[in-house]
Amino acid sequence: MRWLLILILAACGAQPSPLMFGAQRFDTVVEGRSYTLFKKDNRVEVIRLGWADPEEHPRIRATMFDLVPKLTGCSIVPSTLQGDSGAMRGRVTCPKGQQ
Fold first, then answer.
1. pLDDT for the residue 7
2. Which of 24, 34, 87, 89 has its CA 20 to 30 A from that of 60?
3. pTM over 0.90
4. pLDDT level of residue 8 (50, 70, 90 thresholds)
């Protein structure tokens, strides 16, 4: 029974943090790596799926930063960015009329 639960949880994929429940979801693949982005109001959360070698982390982090405007049309506020190459959270500013 324990193995069944582990298998089910492993199949769930990226899930938002509780603050992001109900957020708009974006899924994309960049350079063969999968990412999921959640946007809710003026907050975003970017999650990298899969394993990454330590030397890849700086490039992955830069990719995650670049994904926010590409997928949402909003600019990330750099001073609000928290997290690492596995999951990053921050605030965004969006063009007037877009939320």
1. 41
2. 24
3. no
4. very low
Domain ranges of the chain: 24-93
Distances (CA, A) of 92 to 16, 72, 86: 17, 9, 19
Alpha carbons within 13 angstroms on the beta-carbon side of residue 62 total: 6
CA distance 71 to 55: 26
The rounded percent of the chain whose pLDDT value lies above 90 is: 73
